[in-house]
Amino acid sequence: LYTIPRIYFSLHSQELPEVFEDTMDEWMGEFHKFLNYENAALESATDEESILTRVKAAICENVNVYIEKNEEEFEKYLQTFATDIWGLLLKVGAQTNKDKLTTTAIRFLTTVAKSVHHKLFEDDNTMKQICEGVVIPNLRMREDEEELFEMNFIEYIRRDMEGSDSDTRRRSACELVKSLTEKFPDKLTALCSQYISVLVQEYSTNPQANWKSKDCAMYLIMALTVRGKTAASGATSTNQLVNIGQFFQEHVVPELQSGKDTLPVLKADCLKFIITFRSQLPKDTCIALFPSIINLLMAESNVVHSYAATCVERMLALKESGKARFQEEELLQFIQTLLTSLFHGMEQPESEENEYLAKCFMRIVSFFGPKIGALTTECMKHGCAKLERICRNPTNSNFNHYMFETVAALIKSSVEGNLNNLSQYEQFLFPVFQIVLVEDLEDFAPYIFQILSQLIEVYTPPLPAVYTQIFPPLLNPVMWERSGNVPALVRLLQAYLQKQQVTGDQLQGVLGVFQKLIASKALDHQGFYILNALVESLPSSALGPYLTNIWSLLCQRLQTSSTPKYTKHFLIFLAMFIDKHGVSVVMNSIDSLQQGLFGMLLQQVLMPNFSAVKGDVESKLCAVALTKILCDCPTILSDTATWGQLLSILVSYIEGVTVNDGDEGSGFDMDAMVGYSAAYAQLHHAQKKEVDPLPNISDVRAYLAQSLSKLSHTHPLATTVSQVLSSESQNTLRSYLSAVNATLN
Asked: What residue ranges in 98-245 does DSSP mark as E strands?
C-alpha cells in the first residue's frame, strides 16, 4: 500500500505525465479517502511508524509536489486537500512515530501559504486555529528533544543551530510562520505577539515548572521576526512590526544575567537569540553583554557553553561595511576572563574536544593578535597540551583542525617580528612534532609540516641544527607517496629554500621531487612551486648543469599531455626565470635542447595562452618577462611581425588583467572552513606570504614605457609601432609613455 504512492511520487516529481493528468480524479479520490481513513488495527503501538501513517505522509508529499509544480491542474482539488490535511494536523498526536506525517503535512500548508492560494488562510479564525492547533504545539519542546539536549549535545546543536533539523516539527512550524508572515504581516504579527505574551506570562508565574513556555515563545518570536539571514551576519532583515529591542531587554538579558546553570535550555535559547540578531543589536549593547556571555562559557551544560563560544566567535567575526564591527581595544578588557573561562569550558566532561570551543579559541587569537600580549604563552601551552592529547587519541577532526589553526595564528601574531617567544614555543611544540612524525600519524603530518614552515620562515639564516636535520628526510620518496602530504611538504621545501641554498645531492633530491610531481596532472602545479623556489633562491650557475633535463621534462609533458593548468604554470615559471636571470640565459638553455625551440614556445605556447595567467604577482611576472623578451632579445627584434604581435598581446594583457583574479584567493572564510579533509587541510594562518619577486618594479606600464623608450635610442621603434599596433593600442601605449615623460624614436 505504501509503495503505490511512492511510485506515483517518483513518476510525477519531475513533470506531470499525461496519463496521470487524464486520471487525476481517480487518483485524487483515492488520496482523499486514505487521508481520512482511520483503523486502529493499523496503528503502531511502538515508536515505529505504522503503515497507515506512512501512507498518509506519502500522500502529503504527492499533493505538495502538485501545488509546487502543477498548481493549475491541482487547483480544483486544493480546497479538499487543504481541509483534509488541516484536519489531520489537528488530530495527530505528539508521538515521535507521527513526526514524518506532521512535517510533510505542515510543509503542504507552507507551500500553499507561499502560493497564489494563500488567501485560504486569511480568515481570522483560520489563522488562530493554525497558531493554536499547529504552530504552538509543534514548537513546544518534547521529552525526546529535552533528552537530546542533555545526552547528545552535538546532535542537538546540529539540529538547532546548524539547520540539520529540516524535517523536524519545530523547523516545519517555523517555516509555516515565516510563510504566513510574508503574506499577512500585520495580522499574523499581532496574533503571534499575543501568544508570545501569554507564553511568557505562563513562564513568569512558575519559571521552574513552565520554562518550556518561554522556550516556545523564543522560537516563535525568531520565526516571526527573521525575514532574511546569512551565516556571516545572522539576521539581515527583520519584521519591523516586532520590537526586537524591547523583547531582548525584558526577556533575554535577565535570563543571561541569572545563574549560569539555571534553566540551561533557556540560556541556550537566549544565546541563540543574540547569535541570530547580532547585527541588529546596538554595538554598545553587545559589548555590555560580554561579561554575561563569558560567564556562560563555564556553564555545566555542554549546549550552553558551546552556544556561548559560538556567540563570542560570531561577534568577533562580525563585519560592517567590510570592516570588523568590534575593535581589539574595545574588548581587550575581557581577554583574561575570556580565555580563563574558555579553558575551563574545554575541561568540562564531553567538551574536551568541543569544536565550538576550539573555533572560538581560534577566533580569539586571530582577532586580538599581538594584543593578547603576555597571555600568548599560556595560550600556546594550553593549545599544545590539547594537541598532545588528541595526537594520541583523535576523535573530532574539526576540533583538531581548529587547534592547529590556533597554534598557527599564535605563531603568526606573536613570533613573526618578535623572536622572544620562539624558544619557549618550540619547547611546547617539539613534543607534538615528535609524536606525529615518529608515530607516523598521517592525518596530522600535513599540519606539522605547515607549522614547521612558519617557524623556519621566522629565522634569519643560518637555520638552527634542529631544523637543518629535518631537511634530508623530506626528500625521501616515501614521504611523497601520500598525496595529502604533498602541498604541505612543498610549502615546507619552499621555506627551506628561502633560508638556505641547496647543492649537490640535496639539490638533486629536490629536483627528483620536482620530476615526480610534474608527471602528475593532479600535482604538477606543486612541482612548479618547487621549481620557482629554486629559481628565486639559486644563481643560474647552480641550476646550469640541470637545465637541459628540466626543459626536456617540461617540454615533453607540454607536448604529450598538457592541460590549461599546466600551461599556465609553465608560463609563470618561464616568466620567473626570465625576470630573474635574463632572456639570453633562458633562450640559450632552451635552444640547447633543440635549436629554435625558444621561438617555437613563444609562437605556440606563450602567445596563444598568455592571457590565461591571472593574479597580481603572476601577471606582473609575465608582463615584465614579455617586456624583456621585446627589448632584450635580438632574435625577436629582428622579426618585426613576431615583435609586433608580442607588443600587441602585452598591451592588451596589461589593460585586461583583473586585480586579485588569481585562482588561489587570499580571503579567509572560517565559516566555510569546516576545516578538515583527509587529503589535505590548509591552515590559513600558516599560508606562505605572497612576496613580490620584483620589488623594484612598481608599475608594469611604466616599466614597459621606459624599456621601449630606452630601446628606441639604439633601435628606432616609432614607425614599427605605428605599423603593428591598432590605433587603440597605440593610444594606450602613448598614455604609458606620457605618464613617465618618455618618447619613442
From this structure: 226-230, 234-238
- Encode pLDDT of 178-188 as tens digits: 999 999 999 99
Q: What gap in Å lies between CA 230 and CA 559, rounded to an integer? A: 47
Count CB atoms within 10 A of the CB of residue 293: 22
Question: What grid cell was written down for 451?
Answer: 607549522
CA distance 56 to 613: 58
Alpha-carbon distance of 310 to 293, in angstroms, equals 10
**Mind giving me the DSSP string for 706-737?**
HHHHHHHTTS--HHHHHHHS-HHHHHHHHHHH
- Residue 44 and residue 95: Cα distance in Å, rounded? 11
Coil/strand/helix, residue 235: strand
- Residue 702 vs residues 286, 607, 617, 707: alpha-carbon distances, Å: 50, 22, 16, 8
Rounded Cα–Cα distance for residues 221 and 239 (Å)? 10
Cα of first residue to Cα of last residue in the chain, in angstroms, is 91
Q: Which helix (H) or strand (E) holds 323?
A: strand 323-324
pTM of the shown model: 0.87
| Distance of alpha carbon 242 from alpha carbon 255, whole angstroms | 20
Q: Which residues of 409-437 are buried (b: 16+ CB within 10 A; e: fewer)?
A: bbbbbbbeeeeebbeebeebbeebbebbb
Cis check for the bond before 254: say yes or no (omega within 30 of 0): no
Cell digits for 261? 546553570
Q: Closest Cα to residue 389, out of 426, 436, 424, 422?
A: 436
Beta bridge partners of 230: 234
Cβ atoms < 10 Å from Cβ of 5? 22
Look at residue 667 and tell me whether its pLDDT is greater than 60.
no
CA distances 679 to 487, 489, 530, Å, are 10, 13, 20
pLDDT, tens digit, for every residue of 336-358? 999 999 999 999 999 999 999 99
* Nearest residue to 615 via CA among 659, 650, 572: 659
Cell of 124: 481570522
* Contact assessment for residue 236 and residue 279, using Cβ atoms and an 8 Å cutoff: yes
